[in-house]
Structure prediction request, 377 residues.
Amino acid sequence: MNPEKAFKYDVLINAEDLCDREFEQQDFLKRAKAKKRTIVFAPRRYGKTSLIKNVVGNSFFNLSRNHLVLFFDLMDVQSMESIAKRLHHGITQALSRRFPVKTLLKNATDYLKGFSLQMDMDPVTGQPSLSMNVKGREVENEMTHLMAAIKTLSQKYPTLIILDEFHDITFVPEAEALFRGVLQELGESAVFILGSKRHLLTLMFQDARAPLFQYGDEIHLNPIALEDWLDYFRERMTPNKIIIGEEELKWILETLCDVPNAICEFGAWLLDNIPSGMTLSVGVIKQSLDLMVENKQSYAYMLQGYTEKELDLMTVIAKNKFTLEPHAESFLKLIRVSKSTVGKIVKKFMDRGLIEYELEKGYRLSDPLMGHYLATR
Ligand SMILES: Nc1ncnc2c1ncn2[C@@H]1O[C@H](COP(=O)(O)OP(=O)(O)OP(=O)(O)O)[C@@H](O)[C@H]1O
Ligand SMILES: [Mg+2]
Prediction:
């Protein structure tokens, strides 16, 4: 018998927990094998990292005993030091996962020039873990060695390089130029660049004057279809004898702006809180959603750091669900702030990933559950 399926959220998920995305799994793996460069755009919490790192990355890793996956998470990097740490972490993780300690110690000096290697015992897992110590002290020096290590590894092994939330390097002066150099020299590897901040990615890859203009093929993750979600929900709810129909699920998808993380979090809440044997109506679902967000302590806490004007703007955007033109007179009237102030706040929220812009639909809160909290408060 199949083990019972659950709704997972706020975590990376594996192939068996993915709803839909069969086409993307195959297509991305094909692209990885063909050493293509791909820029994956999707809103926050849409499943980018799970799909590319866990699913495509693991399939690529399993192609042979030499296939290497270098994954770098660049979310919220603030300085060259933090970028160096992320690169260091990505390289050591990839190597320890791929090669036995003995092989590493024997061969690694070839491709990790400028570093001395050390094996430690991970106190949590008890597994040996690799650390690399840079021989020079300056961070520029370390960055040069890290970039060189990535290049050498990618020449030596079939390599998939994943740069997650890549756009955040734009907040670190000089970082873009540094990456540009290495990215353009990775001809032997597949590169996936993932991002959710469309306004920043666009500047990096779509502006004809940008140095990385047309660096790779742009692919967007689309919303998952209602029929796929219906199977996914029923697979998880039927064992608990909870019944959900198409109309009711459609209401959930629309209210939660198709964001998979929010949909799964709400699914999990329904499973935990709805009595067995019940058929869900839109009324019950709406009540449940109100109750769930009301009980989320984290929102009040997260919103503490914002000014009254900022909160007003957030609330109006949340109530609208999508706002096409926050600079329009009709919108400004609702919050009574100037056009230039709105511009500044919108930019700040976008840079932080608090709101995002969806083509043809407009701006919305990145976390639709927080949007629902604000809209119903
Ligand atoms: N295809 C899917 N099927 C079911 N759930 C999904 C799917 N894609 C994403 N999710 C949900 O979204 C959550 C977040 O996934 P993941 O971290 O991979 O997304 P992300 O786009 O990388 O997010 P972030 O913007 O935080 O980096 C998962 O825990 C899961 O709840
Ligand atoms: Mg991610």
In short: The mean pLDDT is 91. The pocket of adenosine-5'-triphosphate (ligand 1) is lined by residues 8-13, 18-21, 42, 44-50, 196, 224, 260-261, 264 (CB under 6 Å). Residues 226-295 form one domain. The CA atoms of residues 293 and 373 lie 6 Å apart.
